[in-house]
Amino acid sequence: MSDKAPDALQARRTTIYLLDQVLGEGRLLAECFAAGALEKLQPQDRARTQRLALEVLRSLERADRILQKHLKKKPPLTVMNALRLGTVELCSGGAAHGVVNAMVTIVSKHRRHGQLKGMVNAVLRKVADHGPAEWAKLRIPRLPNWLRKPLVQAWGAEAVLGMEAAHFAGAPLDITAKPGADLSVLGGELLPTGSRRLSDAGQVSALPGYEAGDWWVQDAAAALPAQMLDVQPGERVLDLCAAPGGKTMQMAADGAQVTAVDASAGRMERLRENLARTGLSADLIVGDALEQTGQFDAVLLDAPCSATGTIRRHPDLPHAKDGSEFGGLIELQAQMLAHAWDLVKPGGRMVFCTCSLLPDEGECQVEEALEMFPDMTADRECFDGLGTDPAWITEEGGLRLRPDYWAERGSMDGFYMALLRKAG
Ligand SMILES: C[S@@+](CC[C@H](N)C(=O)[O-])C[C@H]1O[C@@H](n2cnc3c(N)ncnc32)[C@H](O)[C@@H]1O
């Protein structure tokens, strides 16, 4: 494709489609991408579409506040999403003429709502005049109440405001190095926990050392569970719920014999590609964690969860979900924890972790497991020398990480993790 203008239009049209899917159908962006939503786009339009969709979802509340002044009634969702995209583009420096024309063109071609193009034109012209000045005065977008309420209850109102600021700012790129790889050429900041953080990375696959497999992308918080497990060369380790494999790679790079299990064949394929790129190896099993058997020196269980700790990178989540699935996940986590415990040999150890902000998926799970299994103890010493703050250690002996921590450094994913030792 050589013509630039139609491509930019296609990127915006696809962005609106993605917003319709998230806000209308409750689908996650990752599901839309896996189903091929970006397939027909050129690489630069793909990147632009993803960036635009993330920006709109992060600032949806601001866009709606600006738009509500100019709308007598809410238009159909897809037209509203065109207005939202136009508003976000205009308020973040987009050229008024180009943005307004693009949205009018897109809406004019809509089979059912083409007649609303005049309204779109009028509203976006008003937004172009006044929106950019109003934008910065609006509050940082809040989480929807279904999630905000339990988080305020768990962590307090001030902490949640800090989390929302982190969600709005988005996430820098964190990198885990293969042992021995020198990543100083990448610049950025070496975090106290050992990850390297790049604030303005650009295209990941173009960075030095990516092709050679010297490193992989992994949030600083997500890099800690494998560090806590501290596997030794030759140990037999089971990585349950392993794909796309950030933790598998850490443990394989440390010389352990890793068996990685995941129920999703598609995600396991990504793990396979990651291992091939980094030149690391592990035994891969596509299957149910609950059906695994055997005895291992160490088990890492990164259980499926609400993923509410990852909203900085996945701002679609609070809009696509409503919390109704979380009860089932909490039950599954408890079952997995109990099953995984059976697979730890006497004298062995296990890390249980979830990328969730909800205590029900973290602190409470470990508290209950400690009551249920007399041979289980939580190891608090594993946090020594990890680069984390002692104040983050929880009552039952786990580590609670939150996006309002390290605010001055660019924050971190929300995570819970605990190292559980089995009596010998
Ligand atoms: C939080 S993600 C894992 C991230 C991974 N540990 C990493 O570090 O890259 C949770 C994973 O659990 C997998 N999963 C969900 N239910 C499962 C089950 N019953 N058995 C095995 N894997 C499961 C999902 O496919 C998903 O890949």
From TrEMBL:
InterPro entries according to UniProt: MeTrfase_RsmB-F_NOP2_cat (IPR049560), MeTrfase_RsmB-F_NOP2_dom (IPR001678), NusB-like_sf (IPR035926), NusB_RsmB_TIM44 (IPR006027), RCMT (IPR023267), RsmB/NOL1/NOP2-like_CS (IPR018314), SAM-dependent_MTases_sf (IPR029063)
SUPFAM superfamilies in UniProt: NusB-like, S-adenosyl-L-methionine-dependent methyltransferases
Keywords for this protein: Methyltransferase, RNA-binding, S-adenosyl-L-methionine, Transferase
Domain SAM-dependent MTase RsmB/NOP-type: 135-423
Family under the similarity heading: Belongs to the class I-like SAM-binding methyltransferase superfamily. RsmB/NOP family.
This protein's name: 16S rRNA methyltransferase
GO biological process: regulation of DNA-templated transcription; RNA methylation
Active-site residues per Swiss-Prot or TrEMBL entry: C355 (nucleophile)
Keyword field contains Cytoplasm: no
Residues binding S-adenosyl-L-methionine, per UniProt: C241, A242, A243, P244, G245, G246, K247, D262, D302
Single GO term (MF): RNA binding
Domain of life: Bacteria
